[in-house]
Amino acid sequence: MSDKVLDQSFQEAVQKASRMTQASLPQDVQLRLYAYYKQATSGIANPNYNSSYDLRNAFKINAWMQIRHLSIEEAKELYIETINSIIEKK
Phi/psi of residue 37, each to 5°? Predict the structure, then answer.
């Protein structure tokens, strides 16, 4: 997949995700999507990312750090695949 096609597919998946409610997704899926999105848009996680360190943010940063080995392109592809699989199940 070319970079342009990947970027366009990623943006379409982000738009689809924005129409989903958090209540409709299990928390582990929400964390996975968050991690893929952050890796795709910001690159490798920085553990000092947020100064207001609460339990919710700790889970988010942990999910992101677990996938730090993925490239930006791989994270985009996994984000797209996850969103599409959620939509297919509905």
Answer: -60, -50
Eight-class DSSP state of 6: H
User: What's the token pair of residue 48?
Assistant: 């000092």
Is 29 within 8 Å of 61 (Cβ atoms)?
no
| Residue 68 in tokens | 């730090």
Is 79 within 8 Å of 36 (Cβ atoms)? yes
Cα torsion for 81, 86, 89, 90, to the nearest 10°? -140
Spell out the per-residue pLDDT of the chain, length 90, in tens.
Answer: 789 999 999 999 999 999 999 888 999 999 999 999 999 999 988 766 555 668 888 899 999 999 999 999 999 999 999 999 999 986
The answer to whether 29 and 82 have CB atoms below 8 angstroms apart is yes
